[in-house]
Amino acid sequence: MAPISNWVTFANPMDNPLYQFGAVYNLPYDVGYKIWQLLGGLIAWLLDVLVPGNGVSLWLVGNAVSNALALVLMIIVVFAVCFIVNLTMIWIERKVLGRLMDRRATRIGPLGYLQCLGDGLKTFLKEHIVPDKADTKGYMWAVSIIIGSSVLVAGMIPLSYRFFLADYGSGLLIIFGLFSIAPFMILVAGWSQNNKYALLGGMRAAAQMISYEVPMLVVFASVALMAGSFNINEIVGYQNDNVWFIVPQIIGFVVFMIAATAEAERIPFDLPEAEAELVEGWQTEYGGMKWGLIMLSDYFRGYVACALGAIMFLGGWTLPFVDDSFLPEIVFLLKVILLFFIMVWTRGTLCRIRTDQILNIGWKILLPLAVLNLFVVVVLKVGGLV
Amino acid sequence: MSKMWVTMGPQHPFSHGLWTLKVQVDGEVIQDAEPVIGYLHRGWEKECENRTYPQIIPMADRLCYSASMTWSHLYCKVAEEAMEIEVPERAQYIRVIADEICRIQSHLMWLAAMGTDLGNLTIFLWALREREWFLDLNVKLCGQRLTTNFPRIGGVRNDMPYLFERDLMRVVDLFEKRLWDIIALTDDNAIFMSRMQGVGHVTRKEAANLGLTGPSMRGCGVNFDVRRDDPYMVYDELDWEVAVCDDGDSYGRYKVRIEEMFQSCEIIRQAVAKMPDGPTRVKAPRNVPEGTHVARLEDPRGESLMYLVSDGTDRPYRLKVRSPIFVNVSASKRLVQGGRMADVPAIMGTIDMCLGETDR
Amino acid sequence: MTEQFYEAPTVEQVSELVAAKFGKAVQLKGSKPRRVYMSADKGVLFELATYIHDVLNFEQASSVCAVDYESHMTVVYHLSNYFNGMMIELTVDLANDDLTVASVAPIWGGANWHERETYELFGIVFEGHPKLERLLTPADYQFFPFRRSYKLRRSD
After folding, report:
1. Beta carbons of B341 and A278 less than 8 Å apart
2. A101 near B CB under 8 A
3. Do the Cβ atoms of B180 and B190 come closer than 8 Å?
């Protein structure tokens, strides 16, 4: 072990016997590990200067503490990346919409990038108001769970083979499960606000949820069937080895994008918060930062939807025919932003559709298409073509 | 879920103004509806009984923010009929042009509101962008964007300013092209069509009986336009067509308004070409002879009517205003019944609400 | 229907038909192009309105309003025909101590709110109206603000 005074060493985290990720290199863990080496090393060195030869300094830079704090810092790094990606996506949405609508978009900061932070600060300074007759537990917990599950699922999206929080065998399934919690909590939120608009919005969210998750799950199943695994790494690897799934599963891609737009509650499928008839739908009684967090979670969910699309159909962080070892995270995020741009474009062009129409589309068009897609996959798989 | 009453308004995104629509919903389907108005009741008609005739012109502007030109025109028209004065021909042409500018900008305002009602902000901003040209024309002609205060009893306040015709023609030509951009966002959009078609359906007979007026009525197949059937000013000297659609649903009412904008451009073009020279105003007497007089004209929103009872003094004895929206709103129960909650903005949007003239 | 139906009656036709049908109960007060002015007795109003709607095809009641002449009140109906742009102005005089008149809302749905408005502003009761309640003013108003007896603060 190096002497404590020589603390800027940047040891390889994989040498740590407590390294959690087996033989796979983990970039955010590495970043967290290095941050702790700088930070903890500095503290340890200062302590050592004050009290030479103490045990605390050694303990601080030891394997156990380094690993534990590197894990904490890794989570912070993943969240920070997620958050910045989200701010960028909000900024892109506002800029693109501004361009589509021929109006000014964001204006604060360089290219208006800091407008979202300004808006966040503004909502943060608002008063915390809870309606008198609302069910306070449901009212507050619904927001917590919505934002919590959204951030969790956004954090669980791997940006590349080396940038991930956890590498589960059933990664896709877990992400889908967490992704579906928020629509359910919308129903809870709508119910607990004791407001008719919110109630109608919650009911709409429930109707929308059941009509969109079924085709979406079928598409998930066909992707997993084709790749032979629910593991995201393997799905991406399979696509890199063979062909991007958008080619054989173009139907599935279209179904997924529509269902994901509905899942993320964006126009044309933002019925639960249809502001024309339901004021603000299930968000009617939420104000201040509660509302700000809900808006933020909308974008987290939009990000997750686009990221899933990129993983399942656009080959994740890989590129065909070219060397893609350089910054796969950026490649992945560019694909996500491309899909997000399509969502924004749709939002700028289309109107909101009606409850009965959304159910019709969900059950009568998307579900048969999803099943057809599954059928195509089965035929290809049985025929040994992929 | 049992039936429940939802009070939509007075502060509600779908109600363009202060009014309330109480709807009884069974799930999402509307079983019953009850419109409530009166939040803006100012006693306009009573107020007029204490003002001299010229003082009422700017008040008539305030009846509706986006149809101020036609309202002050209507007031001047009924006052002219009472005073038995003939408006100079040039003033008549200028009034027709001003009315049609007003009609186009009012319809664009409606189109913008319709866009937000259906959740598409692009339509909103595009329509408002085109509307800005017509407001600029208003500024050039009258010095004001909305409350124009332009017609006078016996003519108009001023002649057309220098190069106004040139600007007018440029705006009209460009606007006709740009309107197709907006139509591409609406008519070519399957979701827009599915939201508008088949909702709020009213037959021709019902529409006439309920008293729907203007584009709402013509969208139900009633072929009637005050400008053509009860002509005033110089409308009978111009060659144009009344937009009628037999659909009877929201889409029909939408189509009529779009077509009316094109027809208004046509009217403006012809009126500019035929514009004679001459005075733009004659002197009006101070006192009005005793009698009752009625005048009506085609507002952007429908047939507006004023009934004037004069008693020989310089103030009206009674001035009754018949607002088109007042009647259209009273039909809202019939319109929204059986529809869905989401149809309410799609249906009531086509009524083109304006509460200033409804409550007066 | 035994009577002949007129889709777009002329001014002369309207005057003659109404005079022939109702005789002295309806006084024709003159006509202009596309305008007929007439005054009816209170008793025949509903019958006259039905006749104008069903036979003469005046499909819309453009406006129903009242004028307070202090000695009496007058209810004024403006009825429109959609086929020739004609308008009938029909007035009914009411004595100050008997401000009731038959409602035409069952005939013209569009007259419904006009009558409610006239009721709340002038206190004229329309008999047979489906829902004669205050519309523009608050429901607990005790007075009728558009009557001449109701003075504005600054009026002379």
Report:
1. yes
2. yes
3. no
Residue C47 CA to residue C54 CA, distance in Å, equals: 10
Nearest by CB: B322 against C63, C135, C138 = C63
Count B/C contacts: CB-CB distance under 8 Å: 103
pLDDT score at A372? 92
Q: By the 8 A CB rule, do B285 and B292 touch?
A: no
Residue C145: Cβ-neighbour burial (10 angstroms; 0-12, 13-18, 19+): middle
Mutate to test the interface with B, among C52, C81, C136 (most CBs of B within 10 A): C136
More confident residue, A270 or B269: B269
The ipTM is: 0.86
Return d(Cα A253, Cα A60) in angstroms, integer. 50
Domain definitions of chain A by residue range = 13-84, 132-382
Mean pLDDT confidence for B229-234:
85
Judge whether B342 and A274 are in contact, CB under 8 Å: yes
Report strand pairing: C125-127 vs C100-102: parallel
CATH of B42-359, one of 3.40.50.150, 1.10.645.10, 2.60.40.10, 1.10.150.120: 1.10.645.10
The SS3 of residue A67 is helix
Tokens representing B176 are: 């006709």
Burial class (CB in 10 A: 0-12, 13-18, 19+), A383: exposed
What pLDDT is recorded for position C154? Answer: 62
Look over chain C and give the mean of its residue pLDDT values, rounded to a whole number. Answer: 84
CATH number listed for the domain at residues C11-127: 3.30.460.80
Per-domain residue ranges of chain C: 11-127
pLDDT, position A1:
46
- The whole-model pTM stands at 0.87
Contact of chains A and C by CB distance (3 or more pairs under 8 angstroms) = no
Chains within contact range of chain A (3+ C-beta pairs < 8 Å): B
List pLDDT tens digits, range B237-263: 888 888 888 888 889 889 999 999 999
